[in-house]
Fold:
Amino acid sequence: MKIYPAIDLKDGKAVRLSKGVMNSAKIYSNSPYELAKEFENLGASNLHIVDLNGAFKGEPQNIEQIKKIRQNCNLHIQLGGGIRDEDTIKMYLDLGVNRLILGSIALTNPNFVKKMASKYPIAIGIDSINGMVAVQGWAKISSISAINLAKEFSNVGVEDIICTDISKDGMLCGVNVEFTEQIAINSNISTIASGGVKDISDIIKCKNSNNIGGVIIGKAFYENRLDLKKVFEIV
Structure:
């Protein structure tokens, strides 16, 4: 199981939101690239980045900070937020980002995502509220279930699904393990749990699942609820 420390970018700063609400942003660092280096020093191999401004606007908004992060660490970087076309995918790959996360467009244009997954390293971000898919920076709730959307991408080359229960995101209330497992089982795609990690017990629960391929860690680290060194010892 892989561990993905998270950096969410808003206006060039590393922040965390509560339940995806932009005006709930709490700033944790004015130098996100330094955070990335800290994660690497603690033993991380992977990094999860979200361009929050980009997710809302539908196009990249924090490119300079992403460049700095790439230049200052050797982590495997997966990046999402506002990626809606092939030119943006190529641009980020040229910058040295290792994998792109396609979210809203997975719902609005699944055929595009399938085409991109056949050509580039692509993960799908499926974010949901009460089991229904949320898009555009979680600002809109669709009428499509997360499980049905996940099924759409079976056997098309998608590397991972990143599954976020928005009701738990940033709330330090525990990972929705069952929901994450259902996404993995129904899609037959390795699924990364996101949202709600509160302490080491969540990491152990995910590790003990046969269906969860990774966990994203955000606020639990920033609020000193979780020792990343211990996490890496466990996994």
Q: What stands out?
A: The two ends are 6 Å apart (CA to CA).
